[in-house]
Specification:
This protein is mainly α. The protein is 60% helix and 11% strand.
Length: 73
């Protein structure tokens, strides 16, 4: 159970840090979600939005952070 507790604490800390970064830099992150490759389809009464490239960047960033944490612990 100690391993699970450690993972939960680290995950929570990462989420808090990510939330603070987004909150503090919200005016500078307006480009996020509007990258080339993010799909936006607007019709009369329907809007479809699929931020594919933005999610790929988030995935890459989280993978790097997780690998760094894994190497430290």
């Amino acid at each position: 159970m100690q391993g699970v507790a450690k993972i939960l604490i680290i995950s929570g800390a990462i989420l808090i840090i990510a939330g603070l970064i987004v909150w503090l830099l919200a005016d500078k992150l307006h480009w996020f979600g509007n990258l080339p490759g993010d799909i936006k389809i607007k019709r009369d009464n329907v809007t479809i939005y699929a931020p594919i490239v933005s999610f790929l960047l988030v995935s890459l960033f989280l993978t790097l952070i997780i690998n760094i944490i894994k190497r430290l612990f």
